[in-house]
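Hey, resending since the last one bounced:
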Amino acid sequence: MTPAPVYSVVIPVYNEGTHFQYSLSVIRETLATLQEPYEIVVVDDGSTDNTWALLQDEAQRLPCLRSARLSRNFGKESALCAGLDLARGQAIIVMDGDLQHPPHLIPEMVRVWRETGADIVEVVKEQRGKEGIVSKLGAALFYALFTRLSGFDLAGATDYKLMDRRVIDAWMEMGEHAPFFRGMISWLGFTRAQVSFAVPERAGGTSKWSVIQQIRLALTGVVAFSSLALHIVTLVGVLFFLLGLLIGGQTLFYKLSGQAVDGFTTVILLLLIIGSALMLSLGLIGEYIAKIYDEVKGRPRYVVSKTIEGTDNREPQRVTGEPS
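The structure tokens again:
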């Protein structure tokens, strides 16, 4: 019988067949130094390359490996949810599969968890690594906006975390169908400790996050954790109403005093400003309504099509979800 794991390492992957075998070996070497039972839970987020075939091969010789393949590409957040649902350890570590979350920090995270009693050990960035100026500015803008609207400071935060089992148990009670992992973990609270790192080069491949996906995730984070933006819309409406009263009073005064002049330019400018404000407000309200619509539908966060339980060479590989 395989002993119950003390540590579960959860890794969502998508089209990482070129380098993940190497990444997996580095992660395993690091975990072996802990000298306690562990498991590696890998979730293939509907990869179109050879990632799943690689995981099947690795499972034939690694008892510690447990893998799931999603029925399609649901996105990293959903794949991460699938991994957390499968994890059985007392401490769960979430990390990426490209080694930009350095595995050598795992022993330090475990040490901090055991010595301080912190429920969450967060790995935060000293610097963001090699990124374009647009990405850096976009990230800075999002974190500043998210902090002001929600009250949770995510600056420098990453998905690289060690979480005690009771944190994951509490997280599983959160029923959002459009998850935002960093925000959800911050909302839960619990005691925290930090370990800092500088972002290294990728082991291989390129970022799978497009600009559109990053914007969608940012909108999900803001809309899911704050309704303050809706109150700002109300405030803008009140300000325009007061401005309208002021300009209306001025216009009436000029009319009654016989000083009325053509106000074509003023009218056009007011129409453009008010029209733009209305369209932006409707768009913002639409984002909230869309999220409500998604939640009301009650669809699952992900669908698993296949799973693998790792074995050694003396036992047959167990694969579920495949035709016989």
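The radius of gyration is 25 Å.

Sorry for the duplicate.
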